[in-house]
Amino acid sequence: ILNVEQSPQSLHVQEGDSTNFTCSFPSSNFYALHWYRWETAKSPEALFVMTLNGDEKKKGRISATLNTKEGYSYLYIKGSQPEDSATYLCAFPHDAGNKLTFGGGTRVLVKP
Amino acid sequence: DAGVTQSPTHLIKTRGQQVTLRCSPKSGHDTVSWYQQALGQGPQFIFQYYEEEERQRGNFPDRFSGHQFPNYSSELNVNALLLGDSALYLCASSWGDTAYEQYFGPGTRLTVT
Question: What is the distance between the alpha carbons of residues B23 and B18, in angstroms, rounded to a whole number?
Answer without folding.
Answer: 17
